[in-house]
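Q: My collaborator sent me two sequences in one message, no labels, and asked for predicted structures for both. Can we handle them in order? The first one she listed is below.
A: Yes, handling them in the order given. First sequence, followed by its structure tokens:
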Amino acid sequence: MRLLLLGCTGFIGSELVPILIQSGHELTIVSRKKSRENKFAKYKEKITFLNSNPSSTESWEKGDLGDAIKKVEGVINLTGEAIAEKRWSKQQCKEIKKSRLNTTSELIKAMSKLKKPIQVLVNGSAIGYYGTSSDMIFNESSPSGKDFLATLCERWEAIANKKPRNTRLVIIRTGIVLGQNGGALKKMLPVFRAGFGGPLGNGMQWMSWIHRTDLCRIIEYALTHQNCSGVLNGVSPNPVTMKLFCENLGKTLNRPNLLPVPGALIKLLLGDGAKVVLEGQKVISNRLSKYNFIFKYSELSHALLDITKS
């Protein structure tokens, strides 16, 4: 399948792109940063790289993006500023929203103008859609929450749902992604390896996690299975508490798990963004079960062992 990829040059894209190439898909990768092209240099004969701003109307109407989308059959849109990397200042919150809403809006407008509709759109979202809770269990049919992230995800999905009628849409609400060289473990692994690891906050918050490999496999599954549409929760079947997560990580690394990080310190560093790591949600995927999707890493211990083996 010929695919246009937006927001796929970072942590998830670094594994997704090789998987898609190995499966025989033809890729056009879009990035604002030309330097990201170097990341996929060894695949340069198998991909087309566009240095363009997908949140700009001009890029779609007068730039290369407008031509590129006419030649593809599917689109993967995972655009978005990282949620928990920086303190939630007014400017950062604006960027978090803009990076998702503007790009997706421009994409949908461009798709709506095509004479031949795109066959499938796989669009990103997050389990932040559900809000946070210490005791509720959320699945794809659960209602949205009311906080900043929930409202953002609801708006993001609403824009994607404006796609042309004949385009199949799959929205993936992604959980906490675990993998090498990025994601939730990027900052945790050095601390744990040094012997200073411990749970964040009280440790009782839920972590609905997924191995990066399985998330990439879900994305490809959504692309290639015609019966797959609507919302999928991109989470493993076995969410854990932060305390259990850190115990597993310490055990995998053969390091102690003794020093919890106070919630007050995390709030000082991240402001309102601290709720992403201090207040969790227990999320499962009823729909992946119905599709009989088989996870490669359904257990946390196996996922951490794979990620930390090198």
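Q: And the one she listed second?
A: Here it is, processed independently of the first:
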Amino acid sequence: MSDTIRAFAAAQAGAALEPFTYDAGPLGAEQVELRVEYCGICHSDLSMLDNEWRNTRYPFVPGHEIVGVVERIGAQAKNVKPGQRVGLGWRSGSCLCCRNCLSGDLHMCRSGEETIVGRHGGFAEKVRCHWSWALPIPEGVSAESAGPLFCGGITVFTPIAELGVKPTHRVGVVGIGGLGHMALAFLNKWGCEVTAFTSSAGKRDEALRLGAHQVVSSTDKAALKQIAGTLDFILVTVNVPLEWAAYTAALKPHGRLHFVGAVLAPLNVNAFNLIGGQKSISGSPVGSPVTTLDMLEFCARHGIAPIVEQFPMSRVNEAMAHLRAGKARYRIVLKADF
């Protein structure tokens, strides 16, 4: 079988994606090769395309929200078999022997591999990964919409599952977009009372349909002041700076303001805003394979799926422009049509 893979790649920062072919070389002993069926577009793909984080190598093939069928497995690959439908997200490999991996935190492996950093991603007919990151998609989870679960979905599910969020908690979600709309659904089914914070008045009704119990303007200081001291946990999914002091004030004692959105500006929070109520600020990346499997089972059990718009992969530049213009509602998925 050929090791040549067709894909779409950018030659330089911000460039259009053009047809591209590369030789992937021999399949590694612990690798899995997937035939890509669908691949979501994440804002991180745009950030990498533009070299915003200064770690992009060109030619660059984006794509890290991949759903595909296993075509080949290496001689030492485990837990997957040819013909199986699996998903692959931001991480594509871990060493399995460092302290983080042995603790179950494979997504924080210091020598781990990331699907679109220093290698080619899923805007392609095929993609490879370590077997530990090729995760089976259960019945009840649609292949057409599952891709965004493997980055955006697990990013918001991990803190809910791992940071002690209880069904009795009152929680807030800041930003009702690609990440936030999934967080509303997860938290609602988790049993929480959910407050959505959005700067878009037009999203109010949809936020309520998605699982919010109330909606508050994220830029209305009076509205934020009214809910002071009422929330146990606030999940921040936006990547823009806001009045963070107002959000820490909205927390109850022992409350947590948690970031999954890549806000690049420093957080302007006075220590006394935290000390008096023993509040905390934290952040997290994606999630481990086990937490991702838990998320997929949770989605199947509760009928949770991202809201997606689908484009053929051959129209990838149109799809990227749609996301860049802020028009995506709420995730974009490319269907491979090589």
